[in-house]
Amino acid sequence: MRNPFRSEQDAFRFLLATIAYFVLIVVASLVNKWLGFAVFVLLSLAALYYAFGRSREEPAPRVAPTLPHPEGERRILVVANETVGGRALQDVIREKSEGVQEHVLVVSPALNSPLRHLASDEDQARADAQARLDRSMAKLREAGISARGEVGDADPLQAIEDALRTFGPDEIVISTHPEGRSHWLERGVVSGARDRFAVPVTHVVVDLDAEQEEVR
């Protein structure tokens, strides 16, 4: 099922609005039960108007790269975490960079817990993401793939949008764990990227457990 929110920020705003909704109703009810009922009706009508009004909005224009680069140069944006070192992803990167001068940027979103996100505590999340990225970049170098990496926004879609402005990729490759083990697939990150960005999006499924079993 696709995530009804466009980003984690939308989800947190919805949570805060819901809390405010109930608090206002309770406070008004303590003053007078009829006042509480009136506040409930007014707030409910406002929420319905907002929800249906949003559904009638025109879809947002798809975001395209804004950074030009020379012909014959191919820029590949890879968005992944633990799966960056997977053999399946390495094969895709090689295939897409064949016959051209490739530039590969690997972005690892700084995944954070909702509580830490609300508290604006992202230091540990970024440190963990950097450690994962360093290990993954070492595996890519061992495989003969030249790439650079950076830690991105906690929201994978926002991390992609940021890279579109600073890197200007020709293609986006999103690497995830298999279905059932991937939080990104549950959140609709791949489908959301295809809807939101005017750049070809390739989804690569990396089963690290299966690859390790083959090696053994």
Key features?
216 residues; elongated; 2 domains; Rossmann fold; 15% strand; alpha/beta; single chain; five-stranded parallel β-sheet; disordered N terminus
What does this structure look like?
The protein has two domains: 8-55, no CATH class; 73-215, Rossmann fold, CATH 3.40.50. Residues 1-5 and 113-120 have low confidence and may be disordered. The protein has 216 residues and is of the alpha/beta class. The chain is elongated, with a radius of gyration of 22 Å. The chain has helices at 8-31, 33-55, 87-96, 114-118, 123-142, 156-166, 183-186, 189-196, 208-215; strands at 73-79, 101-109, 148-152, 171-176, 201-205.
The total tally of domains equals 2
Mean pLDDT: 78
The order of strands across the largest sheet is 3-2-1-4-5
- List SSEs in N-to-C order: HHEHEHHEHEHHEH
Radius of gyration: 22 Å
CATH hierarchy, class of the largest domain? Alpha Beta
Largest sheet: 5 strands, parallel
Uncertain segments: 1-5, 113-120
CATH superfamily of the largest domain: HUPs
Gap between N and C termini: 36 Å
Q: Rough shape?
A: elongated
